[in-house]
Amino acid sequence: MNDKLYRGFLFIAALVVPVVCGGVVYALVTDAYEAFEYFGFFRFLTSSEWSYTDGAEQYGALPFITGTLMTTLLALVFCIPFSLPVALFVGEYFRDTQVAAVLGTVTDLLAGIPSIIYGLWGFYTLRPVIMALDISEQGSGILTASLVLAIMITPYASSLSAEFIKMVPNDLKEGAYSLGATHAEVVRKVVFPVAGSGIFSSYVLAIGRALGETMTVTMLIGNTNNIPESITSTGNSMASVIANQFGEASDLRLSSLIAIGLVLFLITALINMVGKIMIKRARIS
Amino acid sequence: MEPVKPILEFKKTCVSYTRQTMAVKYVSAAIERNTITAIMGPSGCGKSTLLRAANLMHNLYPNIRVDGEILLNGENILAMQPIDVRRKVGMVFQRPAPFPTMSIYDNVLSGFTLNGISLSKSERDATVERCLRSVALWDEVKDVLNKKGTFLSGGQQQRLCIARALAMKPDVLLMDEPTSALDPIATAHIEELMQELQKEVTILIVTHNMGQAMRISSKSMFMYLGELVEYGDTATMFSNPSDERTKAYLTGKMG
């Protein structure tokens, strides 16, 4: 009897998660419906107009999709030259040493810093540097946001990559050494190819983090509603435009913001799912 | 008659993992060219440790110390570059481990690719065929050379690993219990192969299997607690061991 109650309780608790998830999707879809119906799904995604003049309202998501893709890809580009060496340092060259343990912990610590702190640092430390270097006049923009995003996703990419690098069997490495390979050759021709799919999937998950990152981007991207012309331009990401405008929006504009949220949700969910499937496959092989 | 110059010679070789304890203690032994020498002894006696010293595997682990001398063709390898030593002294491990991202063909050539040596297409083809033939694998895999090495059976994988080592034309081949992960048929295959291979390469093999030592080796070492207790002709050692500990091990009183 007791056992039955217990099982029942577990069942209900387990049911809450999919119900909440379904509820979120349902709410997004119903609230976004107005915008999609008014502008048409594809036109909404491909239009770059964002104007809330009364009577001539035009909302399209393209500037923000572009902004998100640009910040995410740039962040990835900036992140690889740091996270990959860190992963190699922790997972191979200084594996199982105290230095690696300290570096690993500090890297993981980066993941625990609240994004508002990164935003403040970017705003008050990085932005003046960008201005001083004359890279852009106002300091904020795609570049500034991407640089800070890169730091934020580095721990995710590097600690997971390091795990895959560590998983490369010692048998294989010793086999390569026994044929006269140097450490660098073993890393290049055995460790990287064997850990490759795992490392790749770590970066897919890191992209998943960067896509939805809101606070830091909102503080640094400059918040303009047009398609960024270059990496030093200001812009808005999907997440930042919602954060910036949801408070003052209503009706069609609010529905448009929610529609952007729905698209962001779908992209992020897809990227995360792909990343997780890839990681599972990499672990099995 | 002048004694034959040994190809490999351990001179008071010591290996220690920690400051306090020695895993191999003052081993001295000369290995003759084109022989199969078996190293026997109970688990933890230092036989694999001794074997791994002969191609400087211990250099990969900074805590391990190797002292004394190990001469390869009269030259002390402990003073040589590990890369040069390992190209002359190949190794086959306990578990077959072909490189999983490489095809069978590329696995045979991996010694060259890893060292950045480029060969012409005809040299590559010739090397692959020669090495796969010498491990009696050619007929079995000649039509699937582009498949991954991991697609083969355990015994085939181990033969592929031997082929990979032979491709570098080593003087000495070290084998660390190469059949312990294989079934009896695959084991018999490899033993037969070793008999053939000793014409071109000197083999030093660590084995747990006394029958195997008796079947394939002409010389045997018996190690116990890091010491080389006895070294001599295999037939003599099995029929008339000179040390009580060897006798106890060979008669199964000590494992």
Characteristics:
A: mainly alpha, MetI-like fold, 11 helices, B: 255 residues, alpha/beta
Could you provide a short overview of the structure?
The complex is a heterodimer of chains A (285) and B (255). Chain A is mainly α and 285 residues long. Chain A has 11 helices and 2 strands; from the N terminus they run ααββααααααααα.
Q: Which CATH architecture of one domain in chain B?
A: 3-Layer(aba) Sandwich
SSE string of chain A, helices as H and strands as E = HHEEHHHHHHHHH
- Tally the structural domains of chain A: 2
Overall morphology of chain A? globular
Radius of gyration of chain A: 23 Å
CATH homology group of the largest domain in chain A: MetI-like
Distance separating the two termini of chain B:
40 Å
CATH topology category name of one domain in chain B:
Rossmann fold
What spatial form of chain B do the alpha-carbon principal axes imply?
Answer: globular
Proportion of beta-strand residues of chain A = under 5%
Structure class of chain A: mainly alpha
> Mind telling me the CATH superfamily name of one domain in chain B?
P-loop containing nucleotide triphosphate hydrolases
- Estimated helix fraction of chain A: over 70%
Biggest interchain interface, per-side counts: A-B, 20 and 26 residues
SSE order of chain B, as H and E?
EEEHEEHEHHHHHEHEHEEHH
Number of DSSP-assigned strands of chain B: 10
Strand content of chain B: 15-25%
The major pleated sheet of chain B works out as: 6 strands, mixed
Mean pLDDT rating of chain B: 92
Strand order of the largest sheet of chain A: 1-2
